[in-house]
Specification:
Chain lengths: ~375, ~700
């Protein structure tokens, strides 16, 4: 009894955009668990060969989105297409999509080689051929010769690479990675994420990468999709998100920022400004917010200060933490508490120092 | 395309073939009216009811060829398939002039229709389940309905049908309200109590004593440095492989009128040998011996589940050992203790072996049901009414246990490695625990010594010379010209028991584990109801199952009484919950992402089950098989109603021996059963029990995630 062919009956719905291999299109996709809207109506397009990260705080629906691409969950409503084919009702077994799980999910009773060959064998390939291909995939991730071991006899980083090999050996249309670095120690993370990126570029597979770590997201992605409460908050390249955050949420999530509530206004000369507490006025030339309540985003890089008093805003240093290559200052100011980072090797301004703060208008944002 | 065609065609050819076999062998040819296949019935005998399945089957084959079938078409064929199934069922129950039981052909046709219905459902793509999952869910449900609920429904019907076959509500009420059931005379010391009251009193007594002893043993095991722990573990396992009435027998050998202790007592103190053992007190003693190990196993989990850090916290807050136990540990254990109590209560209500051996004049519900059926005036109505009462009692307790205790579970078993150790008992508490457990251990050991001793004594109470005569009588082997000649009286029932249990055990384990897999890994509407129902069948007392099976499967459309099949079915559905529970526990240890990984790698759910889940579940499978095997061999209550002339089971045979007073033979036979089970279980464990994962034994164990995952 061969079951899989029946799914070829899935209707070929032509969706105008993105019909390339491994392209992904979400059209108003909703996933409900009972009353919880885990994913609450998202539209997005991922181009063939792109590496896109889903970024957002815990519980925002990243994993659910990823699992819908994998076919482990089906959308409650909406359409999902992969490579131009509507797969909204197609279970995981019949999709050409591979996933690397957060826990790696290596089969503990199978050797590394059999783990990698598993998908090929399930696809009906003869064992010797499957093993040859698995060997190749293992060498691709730098684990040649590890085939006969059991997963439990590998380190965390090696297990991770086995999981990766197991996924790419099937030459999937789409590669999915759910927080692939979360079980590695901090030192290994940077190294492994570079490896993943290099491998992805080499084989050119469309990749969706889930993480809650913005630094990781910025380091590996072509594009980042920031999610918040089951919706897409903003998507764009890392630089776009950093320089043009569309909301306070994005601003605080991508890079570090001081957020100060303010009122946006346009001055008589047409320049855009932000008023804080009616008493302070900052020019924000890049602002796209014309009027009304808003949030002023002050990146640490926008702040500079000198000791003593001066033309800028007065402030008092309330905390200073030495972090090796930089010093983190907390500063009390009339518009609220700000933090600032100085890349120096010792604390130069102890608590209580009175300072004069200058904000660089070119580096301020209003959202 | 080819695969689809093969998929759809192969089963249907199977069906045609099957139809031609309907009742063929026993009815002597296809052309006779009774022996005809469905097709021939339609053509030759103008049995119009046969047209519906044929039409639907043909239609389904046609559908199989249409590749991108539209939703509407699929829905329509699904409806047609269900209709055909319903038609067959209705025809079987009501149609035709002669009610005939269903043969192979009908069974195969129905199975195929059923499979295509589930297959069509999964093709509708309502959810991401494949045909295997849908068939499994629907199949398990159908089986449970057919072999658990349908028989019980038959009891419900029978309870209101009097001897003349007429519906009689007053009759039922008359039985149900009878003084012989509800009288409380014994409390006032005047007369005997009713059987239901006896059952309840006994249940309360047994639940109390087993819970207290079980708790004491659990504390002894995990909170003291008691040196005899290995012995304790062995003693805890023994009763599981002991047929339930064996302890009763041993008690008779000790305290009966010709008993060992009775003799000594009358010699020393001049006490008259009395029949005190035969009655509630005796049953209580027997049940306490039999069920304390169960309470012990349950409570060990509870006692060890208390996080050591809580107790350590209490001690750093200046509580001493004794007040820590009183103020922290015991309150935390309360739900667990209540759970053990209710479990023991249910066990006691359902127990048949001890009351039948030790009951004497005091009957309880389970034995009263038995006597209503096998007694002089086989009174089915009375048996059915009593069964209902017993069922309502156990189910009430069961539901209380699930609903009330299901939520308040304080035990703090976390995945985290909790270092630190549970605190020891204080000296005072230790004295109590030792005082309770040590005498009891001695007593239990004596009982088992008695079991072995009783089998090698010529005639208990009169002639204590050692002899193997009983073993020889039961298990003699001779040589005749043809080969081995099984001369002993017990061989017949022995081989029946072994083969029926050996057939039932793997099936039980398979069904139980499949159900567990569905429960743990599949989300579907009504999942919790499904779980509740599978567990519910566990709470149905064996006696009730026995009665329900004779009522349900004694006549068409499903006629099974007296066959080995009914015994196998009975074992499967009685013991399945054990497999389910073991499977659920084992499966929860397996990270779900293992299954999901397999699915994303292109395996369907059947392949996933076979290549990933089953290999990782091996220890659970082995224990499920072993446990079902043991329970099949040792069970009495349901079996006693179902054995037939051709299929006598060991336990039923032994009960017969006891009723004839052949204690020596009975005990010798029981001993052999115990030894056989011990061997089988040990071999199973040694051969298949180990999982080959080398270093890591926690399968798919996920390291604690960072909080913001
Ligand atoms: N199987 C499930 N059943 C019910 N709720 C779920 C399930 N899976 C996820 N959720 C809920 O959906 C939301 C999104 O979850 P998830 O996608 O796992 O978030 P993330 O991966 O971004 O942390 C959460 O509120 C979570 O509680
Ligand atoms: Mg997640």
């Amino acid at each position: 009894m061969k079951l899989d062919t029946r799914w070829q009956a899935a209707e070929q719905v032509s969706i105008p955009l993105n019909e390339g291999r491994g392209s992904i299109v979400f059209r108003n996709v909703v996933k409900k668990y009972g009353v919880v809207h885990a994913v609450d109506g998202i539209d997005l397009e991922i181009r063939s060969g792109e590496l896109v990260t889903l970024l957002g705080p815990s519980g925002c629906g990243k994993t659910t989105t990823l699992r819908m691409i994998a076919g482990l969950e089906l959308p409650t409503t909406g359409t999902l297409a992969i490579g131009g084919t509507d797969v909204s009702r197609l279970p995981a077994t019949y999709r050409n999509v591979s996933m690397v799980f957060q826990s790696y999910a290596l089969f503990p009773h199978l050797t590394v080689l059999d783990n990698v060959a598993y998908g090929l064998r399930m696809g009906g390939l003869k064992t010797p051929l499957a093993r040859d291909m698995a060997e190749d995939a293992l060498s691709l991730v730098g684990l040649a010769g590890f085939g006969p071991r059991l997963p439990s006899e590998l380190s965390g980083g090696q297990q991770q690479r086995v999981a990766l090999a197991r996924a790419i050996v099937l030459e999937p249309e789409v590669l999915l990675l759910d927080e692939p670095l979360s079980n590695l120690d901090a030192k290994l993370r940077r190294y492994v994420r570079e490896e993943i990126r290099t491998l992805q570029q080499r084989i050119g597979v469309t990749t969706v990468y889930v993480t809650h770590d913005q630094e990781e997201a910025m380091a590996v992605s072509d594009r980042i999709i920031v999610m918040e409460q089951g919706r897409i908050a903003q998507m764009g390249s890392p630089a776009e998100l950093y320089h043009n955050p569309r909301s306070a949420f994005i601003a605080s999530f991508i890079g570090e920022a001081n957020l100060i509530s303010c009122v946006a206004a346009v001055d008589a000369d047409g320049s855009r400004v932000a008023h804080v507490h009616d008493s302070h006025r900052f020019a924000v030339p890049t602002s796209t917010v014309a009027q009304g309540d808003a949030t002023l985003v002050i990146r640490p890089a926008a702040i500079s200060f000198s000791t003593g008093t001066g033309a800028g805003m007065p402030g008092t240093i309330t905390s200073a933490a030495f972090l090796g290559d930089r010093v983190l200052y907390g500063i009390k100011t009339p518009i609220g508490r700000l933090f600032h980072i100085e890349y120096v090797s010792s604390i130069r301004h102890p608590d209580g120092t009175e300072v004069n703060i200058i904000l660089d208008p070119a580096k301020l944002h209003l959202v | 395309m080819l695969g689809l065609a093969a998929y759809c065609l192969a089963p249907w050819y199977g069906v045609e073939y099957g139809i031609f076999e309907r009742d063929w062998i026993d009815a002597g040819g296809l052309l006779s009216e009774a022996g005809a296949s469905g097709l021939l019935r339609l053509v030759l005998f103008r049995d119009a009811a046969m047209a519906i399945p044929a039409a639907v089957l043909l239609f389904l084959v046609a559908i199989g060829f249409i590749k991108p079938a539209s939703r509407l078409l699929l829905l329509f064929s699904l409806a047609a398939t269900i209709l055909a199934l319903a038609a067959i069922v209705i025809d079987a129950f009501a149609g035709g002039t002669v009610i005939r039981s269903l043969g192979y052909g009908a069974t195969i046709v129905m199975t195929m229709l059923f499979l295509s219905a589930t297959h069509l459902w999964s093709r509708l793509g309502r959810d991401n389940r494949d045909a295997f999952v849908v068939s499994s869910i629907a199949g398990v449900c159908a089986l449970i309905v057919l072999f658990v609920f349908y028989p019980i429904a038959q009891i419900l019907v029978q309870a209101f049908v009097d001897r003349q076959g007429a519906f009689s509500l007053p009759g039922a009420l008359h039985i149900a309200m009878g003084g012989d059931i509800w009288s409380v005379g014994c409390i006032a010391g005047k007369s005997r109590c009713g059987v239901a009251i006896n059952s309840i009193i006994l249940g309360l007594l047994t639940a109390t004593s087993t819970t207290v002893l079980g708790l004491a043993f659990a504390l002894l095991m995990s909170r003291t440095r008691f040196p005899g722990k290995p012995l304790l573990r062995a003693l805890a396992v023994l009763p599981i492989i002991t047929p339930p009435f064996v302890i009763g027998l041993a008690l008779i050998l000790l305290f009966g009128r010709a008993g060992f202790v009775t003799d000594i007592m009358s010699g020393l103190l001049g006490l008259e040998a009395s029949r005190w053992l035969y009655g509630l007190w005796g049953i209580w003693l027997g049940q306490t011996l039999a069920f304390t190990p169960i309470a012990f196993l349950v409570l060990t989990g509870v006692v060890q589940g208390i996080s050591p850090s809580l107790e350590e916290a209490s001690q750093t807050l200046r509580a001493d050992l004794s007040s820590t136990l009183r103020t922290v540990s015991l309150p935390l254990m309360k739900p667990g203790i209540a759970n053990a109590f209710l479990l023991a209560f249910i066990e006691s209500l359902a127990d048949f072996g001890n009351p039948v051996v030790l009951g004497g004049g005091d009957n309880v519900l389970s034995t009263e049901i038995y006597f209503a059926i096998v007694g002089a005036q086989a009174n089915m109505m009375r048996a059915a009414v009593l069964s209902l009462i017993l069922l309502v009692l156990t189910l009430t307790v069961f539901i209380v246990q699930k609903r009330w205790l299901g939520r308040t579970n304080f035990t703090t078993i976390t995945g985290k490695a909790d270092n630190g150790a549970n605190s020891m008992l204080s000296t005072g508490h230790k004295a109590i625990v030792y005082g309770l457990t040590l005498p009891w251990m001695v007593f239990t050991t004596t009982i088992y010594v008695m079991v072995f001793y009783g089998g090698v004594v010529r005639l208990w109470g009169q002639d204590h010379t050692l002899t193997f005569a009983h073993y020889r009588e039961a298990f003699d082997i001779g040589w005749s010209d043809g080969g081995i000649w099984w001369k002993g009286a017990a061989w017949d029932s022995f081989w029946t028991t072994i083969s029926i249990s050996a057939i039932a055990a793997p099936l039980t384990a398979a069904l139980g584990l499949l159900t567990a897999w569905l429960l743990v890994r599949q989300k579907f509407a009504g999942r919790s109801t499904f779980e509740f129902l599978t567990m519910l069948s566990f709470a149905v007392p064996g006696t009730v199952v026995g009665v329900s099976y004779i009522l349900a499967f004694n006549s068409a459309p499903i006629e099974l009484t007296g066959t080995g099949t009914i015994l196998v079915l009975c074992f499967i559905f009685r013991n399945m919950p054990v497999g389910v529970r073991g499977g659920v526990a084992a499966m929860k240890q397996l990270d779900a992402s293992l299954d999901e990984a397999s699915l994303t790698l292109g395996a369907n759910s059947f392949k996933t089950l076979r290549h990933v889940v089953l290999p990782l579940m091996r220890p659970a499978i082995v224990s499920a098989v072993a446990y079902s095997f043991i329970r099949a061999i040792t069970s009495v209550s349901a079996v006693i109603f179902l054995v037939g002339a051709d299929h006598n089971m060991a336990t039923a045979y032994i009960i017969g021996l006891v009723e004839n007073g052949s204690y020596g033979l009975a005990i010798a036979y029981s001993t052999v059963l115990i030894v056989v089970m011990l061997i089988v279980v040990t071999v199973l464990q040694l051969a298949f029990g180990k999982r080959r994962l080398r270093r890591e034994d926690r399968v798919g164990y996920q390291p604690p995630r960072p909080v913001a995952a």
